[in-house]
Amino acid sequence: MEADSKPKKSGARLCCVCNQNRAALKRPKTLEQVLSSTSPSVWECFYAVFEEEIHQVILENQLFKPGERIAIGASGGKDSTVLAYVLSELNRRHNYGLDLFLLSVDEGITGYRDDSLETVKRNELQYGLPLKIVSYKDLYGWTMDEIVKMIGLKNNCTFCGVFRRQALDRGAALLKVDKVATGHNADDIAETVLLNILRGDIASFNSEFINIRFSLWLMLGCQNLNKFSTYAYFKKLDYFSTECIYSPNAYRGFAREFIKDLERIRPRAILDIIKSGEDFRISTATKMPEQGTCERCGYISSQKWCKACVLLERLNRGLPKLGIGRNQGLNSDGKKDGKRDSRTPSTESKQCGSLEF
């Protein structure tokens, strides 16, 4: 009996895709031992599963239509680089008929963003995708270096998150695209669910509210196969891996560490958190913010002024910290507004690993 059991145990460790090579990874979603052997030369099973899953997500959810213009948010990091590579490959392989563009935001962070943008420029040539770069300096008159010099390292991610989201939307408008694809993975989404709970931001769990706010956005996060790093590494993609110099103390970092601890105990923890976020129901008696437009810049907002205009007004007046927090904002009359803009909470940029719902 013992002799018969050993081959079965050995067989269970084979890749379930090719059934030949020894599996090195286990998928948290299905607990299948797949994705090829420990030898880099036989990672084709991993590539095939990774790319096919994204393809199926696109088909099942009808994410694209032939002839659409799609901007890929490109920071130069592994997630956005993988997204740009895979989407361009699938577009060619399956004839989606899409016009793809790279869209980057230059926050003005010396020694970080200037270096990562060089990576994006190389990706432009490698993948043959046109690149558009929008900068904080051109849009807002400030760089993140200048903002941090004024406010210090505390709360700087709030400014960056708000400005970055709007910069991507404005870049998308300049490119006249139909959707923006962002390289968010399962970790990012789970962290956001947890942060929304910690902040008491119930509006972010309202799916109808999400659909309104993201009318021009496409979240293509490949939530069920969070292996961007592995794919980028073994595919030898050209990406930038240095962490933002202003993000080490970001609030999101603590949520990330907590989720990683949970994942070590229970591999499916990340997927379970995402499922919890999807299943949240808001009481019908709860008053939700209504969609509107900023009276100053025309951007989406539930207040008279959007969060970006509030922050810019305080920066320009030399009082940046008064633009941060639940009860500190400006209405169109330039007075304090006690109501919090639920659509634009204190947020952190993708460089801090965030995903804004």
From TrEMBL:
Compositionally biased residues, Basic and acidic residues? 333-343
Stretches the record annotates as Disordered: 326-357
Query: Where does the sequence pass through the membrane?
Result: none
Q: Report domain tRNA(Ile)-lysidine/2-thiocytidine synthase N-terminal positions.
A: 70-202
One GO process term, biological-process aspect: tRNA wobble position uridine thiolation
Taken from the record, one Pfam family name reads zn-ribbon_14
Q: Which residues form a coiled coil?
A: none
Q: Which SUPFAM superfamilies match?
A: Adenine nucleotide alpha hydrolases-like
Record-given protein name:
Cytoplasmic tRNA 2-thiolation protein 1
Query: What is the protein's species of origin?
Result: Gossypium klotzschianum
Its gene name is NCS6
